[in-house]
Write a structure and sequence with these properties.
Helices cover 26% and strands 27% of the residues. It is built from 5 helices and 8 strands; from the N terminus they run αββαβββββααβα. The strands form 2 sheets. A 5-stranded antiparallel beta sheet has the order 1-2-3-6-7, with helices on both faces. A 3-stranded antiparallel beta sheet has the order 4-5-8. Strand 6 and strand 7 form a beta hairpin. The longest helix has 15 residues, at 31-45. It starts with 30 loop residues before the first helix and ends in a 5-residue tail after the last helix. The structure holds zinc ion.
Length: 183
């Protein structure tokens, strides 16, 4: 592992508890920000269960999160967006449905716990994409849950702060998530 290898920080790291800073719009396409996005995506891709990641999780206190379209498509048959990764910069949640549901949730920075948390079933978000274009989209299902989880990260909030129930994953579940085999 090189010194620059992106590393996912764990829950006691203060970077996860601060408020992430917005990215200046003119810098979105800079090599510095593009490198951060690339590092986030590679850190996420190394985790078999990594469906999304926020910049503070690799130690960068900026308002950026990324979603794996590939894992999202596999996990949520209602998601029709394909395998392309999604990147959200300076995201703002513009709408949350009144309808809420208890959802199971885990976090790459809270290994190896799982919990049940009450979230809106639909959410809309406004942000910039990695090309600096304004995007606005509504989502249901897993993507709506991800929007809420990731925007929480950018505000220094972890799901364990609001979960109604938290449990430790069993060895079996951890193995399954890690995929510690050669496939
Ligand atoms: Zn998380």
């Amino acid at each position: 592992m090189s010194a620059n290898h992106p590393h996912i920080v764990q829950k006691d790291d203060p970077v996860l508890r601060g408020k992430a800073e917005p990215v200046p719009i003119s810098e979105i396409t800079s090599s510095k920000i593009q490198k951060i996005i690339k590092d986030m995506i590679s850190a996420m891709a190394e985790q078999k269960d990594g469906v999304a990641i926020a910049a503070p999780q690799i130690g960068v206190p900026l308002q950026i999160f990324a979603v794996s379209g590939d894992l999202l498509s596999k996990a949520d048959p209602d998601y029709k967006g394909g395998a392309a990764n999604l990147v959200f910069i300076n995201p703002v949640i513009t709408k949350l449905s009144k309808e809420k549901r208890d959802m199971e949730e885990g976090c790459l920075s809270v290994r190896w716990y799982y919990g049940k948390i009450r979230r809106s079933v639909r959410a809309s978000i406004k942000a910039y994409n990695e090309r600096g274009e304004v995007i606005e989209r509504g989502a249901g299902g897993l993507l709506a849950q991800i929007f809420q989880h990731e925007v929480d990260h950018l505000n220094g909030v972890l799901f364990i702060d609001n979960a109604k129930e938290i449990w430790e994953m069993t060895e079996e579940e951890i193995k399954e998530a890690q995929g510690n085999n050669n496939r």
